[in-house]
Amino acid sequence: MKILFVVSEVEDLAKTGGLADVAKSLPIALRSLGHDVRIVKPYYKQLADKFKLENVSDEQQVHAGDKEYRFNIKRLELESVPVYCVDYPDYFHRAGLYSDGYQPFGDNAERFAFFSLAALQTARAVDFQPDIIHCNDWHTSLCSYFIKRDQSGFFARTKSLLTIHNGAYQGSYRFADIPFLRPHSELAAQIDSHGNLNFLKMGIVYADKINAVSPNYARELLTPLGSHNLYHELQSRANDVTGILNGCDYQQWDPASDTWLPANYNSESLKGKKVCKKALQEEVGLPVKDGVPLIGMLCRLTEQKGFGYLLPILGQLLQHNVQVLVIGTGDPVISDVLQFNAAQHPDKLVFRDDFSTRIAHMLEAGCDFFLMPSLFEPCGLNQMYSLAFGTIPIVRAVGGLRDTVLDLQMLPEQATGFMFEAPDSSALLNCVRRALLFYHEYPDEFVQMQKRAMRHRFTWYDAALNYQALYQNCLPMDN
Ligand SMILES: Nc1ncnc2c1ncn2[C@@H]1O[C@H](COP(=O)(O)OP(=O)(O)O[C@H]2O[C@H](CO)[C@@H](O)[C@H](O)[C@H]2O)[C@@H](O)[C@H]1O
């Protein structure tokens, strides 16, 4: 099959979160199944600073009424997957991808409506007539609409799939302010009472199929509580909504060969993990103690990740014989509270307002537990990385976390972690206490759990097979 994978961010090129991990690994896995998959993404400053790329075609155009927007197409290869980059400096040559660090850019609607049109124009320019356009999240949802209404005939046989990586971000903007959409009366008919058009909703309405990044999140999306206020739209497409679990890139996340780590280890021997713990404690300034459990947390600082019920019990949690390390950037209100608590408990809590690939690997390897108490979690990748590193996840039973972690109480023989149900502080605190008790009281069983976790596999190969079947499902029978 010919697949055009349209996405805003890609690991190694430009990234703000888990979407980028998927946008690298899935196309590579699909390529290994023999499909002709090509990525289209914006030529962000982050990417332009790293790779000075040449144009691969004449200047291209997108129109908004009488106005012409001229852009260039650059190309590179990511492990033999072609990546076309839409080069339009006015929209994409900025320090951030979506915001200046404080506020979202005021023209995000315009930027991503343009990008969706430009991605389709890129396919035409390089004469790549896809069977499937695979759209990802709100940024590229409009492609599903545009191919259905395309006048050129180029996409007459093309079907579209929308993958929802995070349904909380929907891109809802004043329709009248988006020059590229003004001629589309069909979209104008879909605005809400405030005059806003919801980009993700348009993907849900117009895509041939829709999938979420885990089976459990797909089920949650079809409930009033889990639908991020898109219940009616999702329910009306219920027969076309499925879930495919993300994979884990075990080349990148392998403690036996990881070059970011001070020592390597595997599921036969965890000796190197102790070295990693010591190095991590030293690096972040925690007392170097082996018998004290170290809980790590690494994420974007947002409400989604469960800070609403974690922050109120941090003090209680730190009364235990434990060390906690939180690393991530994001909401300044959350970082202020973390900073305040860290100043009060310097020997027990460290917060780093920071993110780098190196520190991510160091944290995943050096901690005993990985905390991910998310309010909602479409799939979650960090819990898979922590399983691969023998770092026991403590998670809320929600979204993909429920699909990937097996709780000790429920499945004592197969358990790989600890889970709690209710999104509240006491359920979280009880769960962490349960995990700490197990660590202190059953050290041998704890090591067995670590080894079991390390052997658990969620491969991109399996995910790619499922996507392949879903693409087939989008296409007419004769394909
Ligand atoms: N401050 C920061 N800056 C840059 N990178 C950071 C960062 N903090 C963490 N990261 C990195 O981003 C990735 C996080 O992936 P997750 O899946 O855990 O969450 P995210 O919410 O971003 O993704 C969404 O999309 C993915 C992919 O489908 C779903 O798994 C997930 O549930 C959904 O919320 C990891 O590679 C991590 O190391």
UniProtKB/TrEMBL annotation:
Domain Starch synthase catalytic: 2-232
Residues given in the record as ADP-alpha-D-glucose binding sites: K15
Pfam family, one: Glycos_transf_1
GO biological-process terms attached to the record: glycogen biosynthetic process
Gene3D superfamilies from the UniProt entry: Glycogen Phosphorylase B
UniProt GO molecular function: alpha-1,4-glucan glucosyltransferase (ADP-glucose donor) activity; alpha-1,4-glucan glucosyltransferase (UDP-glucose donor) activity
Keyword tRNA-binding among record annotations: no
GO CC terms: cytosol
Group of enzyme by EC: transferase
Catalyzed reaction equations: [(1->4)-alpha-D-glucosyl](n) + ADP-alpha-D-glucose = [(1->4)-alpha-D-glucosyl](n+1) + ADP + H(+)
Pathway: Glycan biosynthesis; glycogen biosynthesis
EC number: 2.4.1.21
Alphabetical keyword list: Glycogen biosynthesis, Glycosyltransferase, Transferase
Residues of the Glycosyl transferase family domain: 288-436
SUPFAM superfamilies: UDP-Glycosyltransferase/glycogen phosphorylase
Cited PANTHER family: ALPHA AMYLASE DOMAIN-CONTAINING PROTEIN, GRANULE-BOUND STARCH SYNTHASE 1, CHLOROPLASTIC/AMYLOPLASTIC
Homology family: Belongs to the glycosyltransferase 1 family. Bacterial/plant glycogen synthase subfamily.
Entry function: Synthesizes alpha-1,4-glucan chains using ADP-glucose.
UniProt name for this protein: Glycogen synthase
Organism whose genome encodes this protein: Bowmanella dokdonensis
